[in-house]
Amino acid sequence: MTPRIGITYALDDSRKTLLRASYAMFASQLPGSQASFVSPIQYSYAYYNAVDKNGDHIAQLSEILFTGGIDGKGLQYTYGFDVNNQLKTANKVDPNIKSPTTHEALIGFDRELMPNVAFSTTLTWRRNNDLLWTPLLDAKSSDFVQTGTLTGNVAEVGAFSVPIYGQTKTSNPGQLSANRPGYHQRYLGLEASLQKRMSNHWMARLGFATNSWTEYFDDPAASIVDPTKAPALYAGHPWAGAQIDGGPVVRSSTGSGKSGIYLVAP
């Protein structure tokens, strides 16, 4: 059940000034890719950490960390197969998974300034709950320890120093498709327009819009697995990201992977 309700109230007898308000709840569809997520016939790989000692941005064989990890030999995680049984996937789907929901509230103001000329503005608030993610099975942030620090200085961002974490606890190398606990997103948007309706053979419209789309980690112990901060979520690390409470929601674009393009709300 997704309720919706709205009301419009005239502030003056001429009904040229209107106040609008509404509330709605939306449910997203569960992805059709759940079947392929638990299929052993899919794109698969094994993930190891590496230290770029010579600075060429390429992982040489001598730079790959083959010790530690979930198997004592450096393996951080696998995707698409079980290391103990290559004919079986290690991934699982939470039997209690449910559709993500969005709560939306709007409040608006409309005013006819003169015949055929009207001003309108709307403030939008949304809260996204039960968003889907695919964390490592049987792993949590306390299972990770700092293994190094990424430092540098580039023109785009200046000097930086980011701690890097690695998993120490042996666990199931698969991933779990589930609702992300202790996490939600918030959207705030403002739109305003001035419109001259069609009359005397012409019309015009002037508009302005701005927004803020941010994410919140209400329970970091539950909503964060790998504490390593990354520019954004990406296919190879779908549980990571900037992980800044109150920070902007950032997503990595899809494509060939030859370049990193990160997207925020326009």
Write up what this structure looks like.
By secondary structure, the protein is mainly beta. The chain is 3% helix and 45% strand. The strands form 5 sheets. It has a 6-stranded antiparallel beta sheet with strand order 1-2-6-7-12-13. A 3-stranded mixed beta sheet has the order 5-11-8, with no helix packed on it. Strands 3-4 form a two-stranded antiparallel ribbon. The radius of gyration is 25 Å and the shape is elongated. The two termini are 31 Å apart. 12% of the residues are buried. The model has no long low-confidence stretch (mean pLDDT 86).
Write out key terms for the chains shown:
mainly beta, 6-stranded antiparallel beta sheet, 3% helix
Number of helical segments with 4 or more residues: 2
Compute the gyration radius: what is it?
25 Å
Beta fraction of the residues?
over 45%
Secondary structure tally: strands? 15
Reading the helices and strands in chain order gives EEHEEEEEEEEEEEHEE
Strand order of the largest sheet: 1-2-6-7-12-13
Please give the largest β-sheet: 6 strands, antiparallel
Shape from CA axes? elongated
Helix-residue proportion: under 10%
Give the averaged pLDDT, no decimals. 86
